Structure formats: structure tokens, C-alpha cells
Amino acid sequence: MNTFDGKKRLTRSNDRMLAGVLAGIAEYLDMDPTIVRIIFVLLAVFSAGFPGLLLYIILWIVIPEKPLN
């Protein structure tokens, strides 16, 4: 678990396919990364793709990378 002062933190995962954003979200929510990726792809497809891509890029910039311990 990613903790800082005992609190759970959202970080990009080292178990990544592209930038680790969705795997990081899966780790934060204690879910399987494959399920989060499938949900994201379905949402992106049904929203014409562009908003999902834009959201992914914003999250890539905003969510810090997980430190290598």
C-alpha cells in the first residue's frame, strides 16, 4: 500500500501498460488492474474516445509516480 504518514496515496503504478495510471487507480481501489482498464476503455468508447484520452493524459500529468523502494 502506498502510504505517507499512514494515509493511502494515489500514485502511478510500476505495473504499467502505458503510464501506470489505471494500474495505480486499481491499486488504490484494491481492484484487479485488468478490470479498471476494461472499464476505462468501455467508458472511452461510449464517450467518443476523446474525453477519455484527454482524462488519461491529465491523470498521467497529475498523479505522481510511485517511488521505487
UniProtKB/TrEMBL annotation:
Residue ranges that the Swiss-Prot or TrEMBL entry lists as coiled coil: none
Cited Pfam families: PspC (PF04024)
Signal peptide residues on this chain, from the entry's feature table: none
Key word Transmembrane helix present: yes
Domain Phage shock protein PspC N-terminal: 8-66
Cell location: Cell membrane
InterPro entries (UniProt xref): Phageshock_PspC_N, PspC
Subcellular location, principal: membrane
GO CC annotation terms, alphabetical: plasma membrane
Its membrane topology: Single-pass membrane protein
Lineage: superkingdom: Bacteria
Transmembrane region(s): 38-63
Keywords, comma-separated and alphabetical: Cell membrane, Membrane, Transmembrane, Transmembrane helix
UniProt name for this protein: Phage shock protein C (PspC) family protein
Taxonomic lineage of the native organism: Bacteria, Pseudomonadati, Bacteroidota, Bacteroidia, Marinilabiliales
